Amino acid sequence: VTAQPQGAEDRLRRLTTIWSRAVFPVTSTSLTRAEFEEQLLPLARRLSEALRAGRFDAAEGEAVGAALVEAHCTAPEALSRSLDCLDAYLVLYCGEGGDQEALRARCSRLQHAMAAGFARALRRRTLAEQETIAQAALRAQGVVAQALHASEARFRAVFEGAAIGIGIADLEGNVLQYNGALLRMFGSEQNLRGRNVREWAHPEDAPHIWRLYEELVRGERDHYRVEKAFSRPDGTVLWTNLTVSLLRDADGTPQYQLALMEDTTERRLLHLRLRYEATHDALTGLPNRTLFFERLDKALNAGEGHRFGLCYLDLDGFKTINDSLGHAAGDRLLVEVADRLQSCMTAPGEMVARLGGDEFVALTTAADSRRQVEDLALRIMNALGTPIRIDGRELTVRGSIGVVEGAVGERSAAEVLRSADITMYRAKSAGGNRFERADPEADARVITRHGLTTALPAALDRGEFFIEYQPLVHLGDGSVRGAEALVRWLHPQHGVLGPDRFIPLAEHTGLIVPLGRWVLEQSVRQAREWRERHGGDTAAPLRINVNLSPCQLRHPGLVQDTVEILEHEGVAPDALCLEVTESALIGAEDEVLEPLHRLAEMGVDIALDDFGTGYSNLANLRRLPVSALKLDRSFTQSMQRFPADPVDLKIVEGIVALAHSLDLAVTVEGVETGAQAEQLRILGCDTAQGWYYARPGPPERLHELALADATG
Amino acid sequence: MERPPWAPRSIDISVPSVARIYDYYLGGSHNFEVDRQAARRAMEFLPGLPKIMQANRAFMRRAVRFALAEGITQFLDIGSGIPTFGNVHEVAQGASPGSRVVYVDHDPVAVTHSQAVLARNEDADVVAADLRKPREILASPQVQRLLDLNRPVALLLVAILHFVDDSDDPQGAVAELRDALAPGSLLILTHASYEGIPLPQERRLGAVDVYHDIRNPLIMRTREEIARFFEGYDMVEPGLVPMALWRPETAPEDEDPYALAGFAGVGRLGADRAKADRHHAAGAAGTQVPCTRRNGRGA
Q1: DSSP H or E run through A211
Q2: N or C: which end of chain A has fewer CB within 10 A?
Q3: Using one digit for the tens of pLDDT, what is the confidence trace for A284-316?
Q4: What dihedral angle (degrees, nearest 10) is formed by the CA atoms of B195, B198, B200, B205?
Q5: Cis omega (within 30 of 0) on the bond before A287?
Q6: Do B20 and A152 touch (CB under 8 A)?
Q7: A25, A129, A144 ranked by CB distance to B11: nearest
């Protein structure tokens, strides 16, 4: 009895082993066969018990079929092999002692139920898994879609909110999408919706714009950037900085074109306005100096064979009008002049600009500029000929014009304008209301003059000046009585320059004051040296004559400077003679004469230089503190001929007589011959100087002359 | 909101996925008709493919048990695919409750499916990442949360490396993962190979072409090439062998001939080696593993 169940268990094991061997090769389980057999054992037991149960229940077979699916025996072969196995061995191993016929019937019904249970479970599992994977796919797509949505929402916000205009078109140019900024730029949808990019051609388009476009849509170029104009429906023009990019798909095939536009209309207008303001004169509306120089530069760089002509106009007496009628009237006058000048610009290539104040300049680049520019100058003179009516007054406006004409490429714009300026001043100094043609020599003189003027101050500091002395000889006995100090400039480039070349410049700049003081110092020092050499000679001491310019005469420090210099060198005042030109003293006020009076009272001699050249007011001589007259060389020149002009002789004789009657000594200049000297001596002149005696020279020369004179 | 015409396409389930094909081979229904078509085409050339998959699963099961016997309770399974049955967490947590498992796959469907399966599992999670970017895997919140990299980890690269072309530097990726692991960690690896497949060459090539067609080229490697992935590891007995021969538990007569295809092996990271390589890796930290779009696990 006890062996019975053990034997049944053993048989159940054997059935399970056979079953697992049959099914294992067609399962998908990752278990070993032994493990798999352990999974089948309870299933075999259930079937065994169902087979022998008091009350048969086929549902047990269904449960076992479902359990097979649970154990991953999902292949159809797993079922058929299971059924084959159970059909053959279930009754054999588990139906011992029962009604074989009934057991076989039960076994059959269990198999049917197992098949149904397997099919139902497999179907349920398949559907569940399909559902699971579909859900997973949906969720995965949801995740991607969500990410895409978020990214799209961000891009959409950028697209819609961008201040820059964005548009997308296909490769045929059909506009597909555009953002609000682009719509605002274009003003209305009619120019955007359903339109083609090619319809946006504009007359201002640079030729390369559409070439770049074609290259892009053909896929030969990935982007380009241009400045482009668009016509708005209201007729206005939209200017943009346009960037177009090619959009390709994942395989690199061109798909769309993306346009980014920045509205530059305002900026462009502002730029144009600023440019206009920067290049035009606010008062007259004419081009200004900047624009003029741009045009002149362009004209001068036009290349070989081109010529240019230029009229530089300065109104005569404009300052007077401004001062007497006020600036408002002056401005209206300038506006009228500008209008008239503008009307003179009749030929192509002519322009007129206002350089500032009452200075205007007209430029012509016509082929025949030589004739053209004089025509232009005449037209301008004519245009100014008609009086201008301002505040009920008829004003006659005159102008001086400097005309420059020439081949381009030879001079810079600045050089051309300087020549024109110089020439205009020549016209002005010739009386105005005329035009003058530029002359290189005249230009050079002015330019040198200018150069000397600017070099003067440094020249004094660098000690470029020196003094030459020309002896003054007593006509009675031929002895050397003194010398005139004559200043020279040893210019580094121009060599030795005489006082006529730079004294007027020094007068003009005021440098004459320090220069004059330097000359006085040097001369007085020289006088002291001479005096020391001659010691207490019985002959009259050598005197030094120094020229005094009108500017020095009015300088408040004149008397004090002179006194200091004399005292410093220990030279007596009577050793110094200051020469003042007649023109500087004639008609001079008393306060100008005052310093001379004081110097004369101290014992300094005052000589009236160049006497006879000006409007000699003989009556005036009485009130001047002079002690000598220096007759101008024009009187002595006529005496070089023989016989001398008797009228000249009479005049000189008269002057000498007059001078002597006023107790004035007479010195003559420019004595070049012995006959001259003899004649002048006979006429009663006191002293003389000139080449006949000695040319101006270094102080040592004078010393030699004086010694020779003393010993002779 | 209307979808702009230039926006990129979303994920495409009309393209077969190696993860779902794998599931089909294992008798599952977590797959779509496109997957089944591709799977059947490959089987025309290699009828034993399901058995190869099964052998992979069986090896993985044995290897996980081996790891547990070594005292390792942390698992990083890269290329985990669709979790059907006999997964790492089932095996590991069944034998050692509390074992930590992190799955990694870059098939978005496989990842969402895994998320559903693991929803109530505190000790397991899934990362959507790519083997070719090991740093992203190691830096993921899931790895940071579940794995303690200062203690040994079992790294599973089962049936994944044969989908990574040499131009994507699989060697570098494997090395970078190795350098992040503590001594005593295990590398559990299987790899497809022509060696051991009981078929003529042209039929084997046909199966390879199928995978090439679904943009997941199958890179067959020799045993020697596969052994190189274990650089820095000491091979555990019996070394790199046909899958069915790695510590078999099933009688040889029960094994299908296809179970002998491909190679399987387990390596153990030695203390000295790990230290030396960690040092070495610091110097080469700038190396980046290139990435292209591919799906998860297959044959």
Answers
A1: helix A207-217
A2: N
A3: 999 999 999 999 999 998 888 888 999 999 998
A4: -60
A5: no
A6: no
A7: A144
